[in-house]
Amino acid sequence: MAEFPPQPPSPPYDLPLNTTMQTVATIVLWGGTALLLGYALWLANRERSIFPVVLIVAVAVGSLIEPLYDISYHLHWLDAGQQWTLFTSFGLPQPVWVMPAYVMVFGMPALLMYRSLARGVTLRRVYKLAALTAFTTAVFEITAINLGLYVYYGESPWRVLNYPLFIAFMEGAQITGFAVLAALLSLFATKHVHALALFAIFPGNFALETLGAGFPTVILQNTSPNPDDVLLFLSAFASVGLAATALWWTTQSLLLAQRYRGLGTRAGVEVGVAPRS
Asked: Could you read off the pLDDT of 183-224 as tens digits, one per residue?
């Protein structure tokens, strides 16, 4: 008989969905998105720029990349025939609240950060923001997982309360990296149409920080149903290190642009501002 190569694990299709929490997540996340969009419209009117609104819409549209993440990281949205589905791709039904979840978890921090980052930033501050967004992402995901909305199946390293914790560091780099790139774009955007580049920047940076930097762990997770535990544990360090490196590289572009424009910091002293005594 022919021997077939080992296959990656299959999603747990039989696990039930917490329909009560589906309703709560849908109401809370779509409601939060509406409020955030209202804030973005207020900012746009105050600053006479469509940039804040485009940022939120770009993240919402960018949520369509989620099935690629699900396949790579073995995320399964619980369904059992009870999911309110927004769209289906690769045979993976996406819940109706996945789009506002992107807006609230990824878009809101970027909206709150990018204007401040554009005025001046240090590498230390960027990494502090990445640590903060890694924490908020972990809280969100651990809550959603343990309330019965989705699961990470198969073997994953650094599990805490059923959540592969290394992913939080990948997402922290992704969120902060997007804010840095949005700040960089805002410095050079001289026309409203330039803000539309955010539609390419968000999914591109998402893929860089999660699928690109995460490739050591993603590849190992999908080699067989039972990858080597030690290698999997070590691969997470490699993935997080690559994500941190990608964030460092992204930040260099903003730092260079700010130095060129006389903004930011140089040798610990604010450029263009009198040093404090």
From this structure: 999 999 989 999 999 999 999 999 999 999 999 999 999 887
Neighbouring residues of 39: CB distance < 8 A, sequence distance ≥ 6 = 52, 111
Return the SS3 of 38: helix
The amino acid that residue 274 corresponds to is A
Tokens of 1: 């008989």
Q: What percent of the chain has pLDDT over 70?
A: 92
Vertex 215: Cα angle to 209 and 219 (nearest 5):
150
pTM of the model: 0.90
Contact assessment for residue 76 and residue 66, using Cβ atoms and an 8 Å cutoff: no
Cα separation, 106 vs 176, in Å, equals 9
Token readout for 192 is 């409203």
Nearest residue to 125 (alpha-carbon basis) of 199, 198, 183, 164:
183
In angstroms, the CA 45 to CA 176 distance is 25
Backbone angles phi, psi at 193, to 5 degrees: -65, -25
Contacts 24+ apart (CB under 8 A), 143-148: 144/25, 147/18, 147/21, 148/16, 148/17, 148/18, 148/21, 148/78
Please report the sign of the dihedral spanned by the C-alpha atoms of residue 189, residue 66, residue 85, residue 160: negative
Q: Low-confidence residues of the chain, pLDDT below 50?
A: 1-2, 265-277
- E strand or H helix that includes residue 182: helix 166-188
